Amino acid sequence: MILLSARAGEESTVEGLEAGADDYLAKPFSARELLARVRTHLELARVRREWAIELEQANKELEAFSYSVSHDLRAPLRSIDAFSKALLDEYGEKLDERACHYLDRIRAGTQRMSALINDLLNLSRMTRTPLRKESISLTELARGVVAELHTREPSRNVAIEIADGLSARGDKRLITIALVNLLGNAWKYTAKRPETQIAFGRENKGNEAVFYVRDNGAGFDMAYAGKLFAPFQRLHLDSEFEGTGIGLATVQRIISRHGGRIWTEAAVDEGATFFFTLGDMR
Amino acid sequence: MMIRERPIFLVEDNDDDAELAVMAFHRAKITNPLIRARDGVEALDYLFGRGEHGGRDVSDLPAVALLDLQLPKLSGLEVLKAIRADDRTKHLPIIILTSSNEDKDRLSAYDQFANSYVLKPVDYDQFVATVLQLGLYWMVLNAPPPRKEI
Question: Quick check: A70 and B100 CB within 8 A?
């Protein structure tokens, strides 16, 4: 839309553009200038349409790809796992210890790959599902997540502090997944501490709310912090702490879809803190 | 008097998965005969007594059908739709047995009146446990629709 107005001057132009006009032309204007601008806008509209079509195409391809991954990659895995198990069950007596060990390794490999596929699918789902923002209580969500962690490992000695009254606007399902990952990580990486300490709270920086999850766990070397949020990147060995390296990539994607940022502060053996914002709180 | 056990109808294109299902049924001590179709067209040919199954007594319905979603020719959803649209087969209990956990697959399966939607686990022990549960529920606990008089 091009506004044609007798009101000249920078003030009215800015006002018109902010109100949603694509362009602003003060009267009196020449027919040639108007034509040139219309032509430019038509050209821009055409380019935008092309981009939109290309984007939609790319999204469709991504969806088809994920779909195929979920179906086609799982089937052969099931075969590998099941026939290894059948060998163990039906012919275990004829196999020596080493042969059985090999079969166990094969099965462990398939289970790991299966976990990778699931996580990868979840990650791509994070990008594909439409965002439904509502007012949510982060305090309540975090308490639910922690209660679930407790039930899974009731014997852990933990001190968990969740601040009251933390709220935000966001997609409840996605934010829950982010908290499951962040609090789950804090829980996982403090497993070797005599007492696990985890805190979830808010700091105000300027008029922006910054949420954080802090733990006293294994931490990591900040030199590698840049890798942390990329899929499949891990800073610990599987034998130290299990994982597929998808969790924080998922969290980052969720945060960035909300228009927020995520960053971290940590040191080896001194715990880690993950900070995040959730964009526009209005 | 001999009561012939009603068969389980397995619609599965993947030979490995079909063999694993047979093994799992065996382990779960489910002895009903198993009839298998390899794609959507074959599944409907069997149920409607067409093609190579021409002349089959169509009123002789399986106890339950295990239906994969990804099938050659006609998809599982299309098969489901055709089964529900035909008076002779519309009450057949149908369990979708699939690797897909996509929301849209689950939704369309229930939209087309699947009786149940079950994920095929990758882990074989879980697969056997799943088949055992399915067998117990659908062969023992669940009362099937009465046979139609023709």
Answer: yes
CB contact under 8 A, A81 and B124: yes
Is B23 close to A71, i.e. CB distance below 8 A? no
Task: Work out the number of other CB atoms within 10 angstroms of the CB of residue B90.
Answer: 11
- Domains identified in chain B, total number: 1
Q: What is the mean pLDDT of each run of 10 residues along chain A (282 residues)?
A: 80 83 83 88 91 86 76 85 91 91 91 84 79 93 94 90 94 93 94 92 88 93 86 78 83 92 92 90 52
pTM over 0.95: no
From residue B9, alpha-carbon distances to A243, B61, B63 in Å are 39, 9, 8
Query: Per the domain annotation, does B3 fall within a domain?
Result: no
Following DSSP, what letter does each residue of A214-234 receive, concatenated? Answer: EE-S----GGGGGGTTSTT--
User: Residue B14 and residue B3: Cα distance in Å, rounded?
Assistant: 31
User: Are A205 and A224 spatial neighbours (Cβ–Cβ below 8 Å)?
Assistant: no
B1 inside domain = no
Residues A100 and A216 in one domain: no
CA distance A81 to B24: 13
DSSP state of A157: -
Place of tokens 């982010």: A178
- The residues on B that touch A, with CB distances below 8 Å, are 14, 16-17, 20, 23, 70, 98-102, 120-125, 127
Domain that holds residue A53: 2-58
Chain B residues with CB under 8 Å of A75 CB are: 14, 16-17, 99
CATH assignment at residue B114: 3.40.50.2300
Return the bridge partners of B95, or none. Answer: B66, B116
Residues A10, A99 within the same domain: no
Dist. CA A71–CA A81, nearest whole Å:
16
Query: Which of B97, B98, B124 is most worth mutating to test chain A (most A CB atoms within 10 A of its CB)?
Result: B124
Tally of domains within chain A:
3
Q: Which helix (H) or strand (E) holds A208?
A: strand A208-215
CB atoms within 10 A of CB A22: 14
